Amino acid sequence: MTQSVIVMERFTKHYGDRTAVEELSLQVPAGSVFGFLGQNGAGKTTTIRALLNLIRPTSGRLSVVGLDSVSDSVALRRRVGYLPEQPEYYPWMSVDEILRFNASFYPSWDRDLEKRLVDQLGLPRERKLRELSRGMQAKVGLVLSLGSRPDVLILDDPTSGLDAVVRREFLEAMIANVHAEGGTVFFSTQLLHEVERVADEVAVLHEGRLRLRSNLEELKATYKRLRAVYPDQIPESFPVPGLVRAERNAHYALLTVEGFTPDLPARLAENGAAAVEVLDLSLEEIFIEVVKGAPTHA
Asked: 150 near 75, Cβ under 8 Å?
């Protein structure tokens, strides 16, 4: 069994009368790139901040690399790289100054890795942070989070607002460097097409609750859309286990299913379908189905 590097056990967070996250239990396997997905307000940032002890859980337990997020937070942060959506820097510092300042907190800081990343990302060491574009600042944040060679890299929507070229460069640098070290990436974002390109595991949080957790390849293999053509009348019901949604048109039905098996087209043919086409779904399409009411998964 693959070791879990992040463990959440019935994590709950209340803000007064409002529940941000409720009874969240989730394990992230070591060495994975894990996409943590959800709409605005789903509870993703709350969960990440609690993992790093930036806020305290109302109840439940969180740990990273075997260290308790509350009682072992100092040791935990030495082994975790963290990049929020809008990092706060000292704007008067240059790129070189912020790197040297950050390195002073980590005995494991790797100057050779820092130099390689700075060169790879084209960062101007002498420029002040306030003079840099949003994309360049994100690249600085990536070097700051990777330079200590963390066991786990936690990213809270860091590519939001970046153009497509910078996002791709950012993600390629992140994956290449963390995977080279055998590390783990826990990656929160709303840009589902980016997750689909880099993640191997995903979880969907909706209104503070876990709605789905799966290996990405398995998820895309089990969620399918069937286009069933009926020459006469479309039936009122369909012999399809795991039916999530049915849409009817003049002579065909679009059936979204969870738990696709190869025998489903034959079942529909027995039910009067003249032709059945199996259509793949993107991660974004699956996400929409899940948050619209697909069953909860443990």
From this structure: no
